[in-house]
Task: inverse folding
DNA sequence: TTTAAATCCTATAGGTATAGTAGGATTTAA
DNA sequence: TTAAATCCTACTATACCTATAGGATTTAAA
């Protein structure tokens, strides 16, 4: 299960992507139309900005805009920023690798190989899908 | 990320599957060899028993055994029992469906379609893999 | 110059799930 | 009778999620 943070973040990115390049979109507008808690969404937008997906303009008439063309933003990047690793165990994560405390060797771990397959099947989807694909 | 419960549960099933049919395997042995907290594993084994994967024998010389041939136990069943839904959002779950509070319509939800693709790619892996495949 | 609108930032709280632990009840082979 | 094993209930500690609160800062426009 993905977190609401991830779900909200994707919805917000798609919403912003529907607007013209550099046209600012306010958090309050996104929150209203997408049924998201405004303050919570604020924090999510900050995260997406720090990750480089969004730019912002402060003050009256300000808001957020996409910094990259939507067709260039792969969902795998978005997921890693919002949700974390694509892999379901740290020991098969490409970007967030960690050794398991309980496994003496990954080569002989029964779970390991299954998780690699799941990771790769998810990566295939997330690598070929972009924000532009989610804009209807 | 899957829970340790799921990881431990899979390892335990695979461990039991390596033994002869109806030969009992003790929780303490699995816990020792797989580096799992014995009491925690106890609870997991109970879950797997109630789900029909394992049978048990109480008392001295007792333990757990597989109730079904390992090549008949699909990983998708195991995952659903231990981890819950395969889908990453309830609104695309086949076995644990729930409507989203925030979405007025699933047809127009940008997240929905991506999550269906992720679900199906995971299902493809989990449907074709069995416990027997994880036994080396 | 003032005001309102907007992002930005920190701290905190409440709820829930995870990963156990504790202690005993029950069953069974030897 | 004893020891070994599953079975069962209840509890705890920690971390994470989902916000909320309150303000600081910046900016356009009146």
Result:
């Amino acid at each position: 299960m993905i977190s609401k943070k991830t779900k909200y973040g994707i919805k917000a990115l798609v919403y912003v992507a529907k607007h013209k390049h550099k046209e600012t979109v306010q958090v309050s507008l996104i929150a209203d139309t997408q049924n998201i808690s405004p303050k919570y969404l604020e924090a999510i937008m900050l995260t997406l900005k720090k990750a480089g997906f969004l730019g912002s303009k402060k003050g009256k008439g300000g808001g957020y805009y996409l910094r990259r063309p939507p067709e260039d933003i792969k969902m795998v990047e978005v997921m890693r920023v919002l949700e974390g690793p694509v892999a379901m165990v740290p020991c098969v994560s490409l970007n967030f690798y960690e050794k398991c405390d309980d496994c003496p060797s990954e080569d002989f771990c029964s779970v390991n190989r299954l998780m690699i397959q799941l990771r790769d099947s998810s990566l295939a989807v997330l690598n070929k899908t972009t924000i532009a694909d989610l804009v209807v």
